[in-house]
Amino acid sequence: MVSSKDMAPDTSGYVSSFIKNQFFTKLPTTPKDIDLSGQVAIVTGANGGLGLESARHMLTLGLSHLVIAVRSVERGRAVVSKLQTSNPSAKIDVWSLEMESYQSIQAFVQRCEKELARIDMVILNAGVAETEFSLTSTGHEKVIQVNYLSTVLLAILLLPILKAKSPVGVTPRITVVNSIMSTYAKFPNQNKRPLLASFDDTKVTAWDPAERYNVSKLLGQLFLSRLADCIKPEDVVINMVEPGLTKTGLFRNLRGIAGVILNLIKSFSAKTAEEASLTYIDAVAVKGKESHGSFIANCEIHPLATFTYHNPEAKAITTQLWEETLDEFSFADARGILQALSNSGLVGLVKTPVSRQRGGGAESSQLASPPRAGKHTAPLSSLPGSRPPFSSAHSVRSSLRLYRCEAFYLPRTSLGVWPSLGGSGVDAAGARSQSVSQSEKQVEKPVEESAGSAGSVETAETA
Ligand SMILES: NC(=O)c1ccc[n+]([C@@H]2O[C@H](COP(=O)([O-])OP(=O)(O)OC[C@H]3O[C@@H](n4cnc5c(N)ncnc54)[C@H](OP(=O)(O)O)[C@@H]3O)[C@@H](O)[C@H]2O)c1
């Protein structure tokens, strides 16, 4: 099975890709043998849109315990009461998660660790598309914060918990909702240093709402495909999914002529959230280890954003992004978490944060990283009820084992030597492998927590 990064880039262009995806592609229905009974799933941003529909879909497949992670517990509770009526035997919880706050993310993860006996599937779906520039309490621009930074932080923090709690023979999965629009990011600030801070100042990077959404998804692809290189698919499968243009509230803030045009286009071309949720179920419950690190569109493994194939630029920028992002998450000991998981030493951690380096051909904008209110949070390991922190001896041992991930990263042919491309770029080998992945998902034992607790709605204000 060919993974996304070993495919040729998709050169089909926006219009032909859009027409093919929206009008000529019928999504496969979920295989009948997918049975989620006994399993536990988390869906972020599940009080509406695609998150809610995928949650509903998982419940119809027999899911035993669903945690919907929402920023408004009150609205989440209203949604849950409807889900509960149609699925009386499932345990459905509403937990607070504000993706603009690192503290909220840490508290959510801590709760997962403390209260969930196992976690089989996570769909990191919460996302925004904003028309106006704004900064969050972390000091970062909102779209980058929610769609990129907070999403990858949540993925990193959940990894060891998923691994530790998975029953023998079960491979847990994290599916991150991405977008085909990542391919259309122009990424004008790609050579600014530091890179992340360059999104936070409109004088450095001009505000363009569509570009910001697209690049937020591109950053996700760059980081997550590298993260997947550091994690064994036997421990946790990480993949990314594109749902296609869908009738949801995502672009609700788009006003004026652009809003009218988009609504018109959506009215005749967009999928319903129910239909598009098939893509989420495919990525999180049908696909298996063959999808690790890949981007899935129309339920098939698809090339990554075209930018990622531009060697060596993409490699250098990915390294910059990787190091700056891990620096950003030092308050949560993200490097330590990855070191501990990457027992084959694939994390490629560097001692001198790249974000503090200058030069090397990159444009040195001398941006000062502003103090981040949200950064002054505790490592998860120091929060009550969490595991002991990594010992320094352990860190030294792990560090000695480490060697740079770059040695493994993007070991692919340069753009110029790919054979004639044409078409969608979807390799025939991207075909689904349901039987393999289904067998991986065999459930060892039912969820103990569900017994006797069906129908409960639990709330937690953590932020
Ligand atoms: N719709 C499309 O055509 C399309 C296409 C490609 C990819 N996607 C992706 O699909 C995902 C779901 O979007 P959607 O189309 O279903 O849009 P949506 O209806 O607007 O849903 C977005 C969800 O994210 C939540 N969210 C936003 N900011 C949050 C924050 N700071 N903290 C916690 N939750 C937050 C929202 O909660 P509130 O209700 O509280 O705002 C909502 O539940 C997004 O990642 C989006 O980028 C959508």
Automatic annotation (TrEMBL):
The keyword NADP applies. InterPro entries: NAD(P)-bd_dom_sf, SDR_fam. Residues 355-391, 425-463 are annotated as: Disordered. Pfam families: adh_short (PF00106). The keyword Repeat does not apply. Keywords: NADP, Oxidoreductase. PANTHER family: DEHYDROGENASE_REDUCTASE FAMILY PROTEIN, PUTATIVE (AFU_ORTHOLOGUE AFUA_3G08550)-RELATED, RETINOL DEHYDROGENASE. Belongs to the short-chain dehydrogenases/reductases (SDR) family. This is Short-chain dehydrogenase/reductase family protein. It comes from Cylindrodendrum hubeiense.
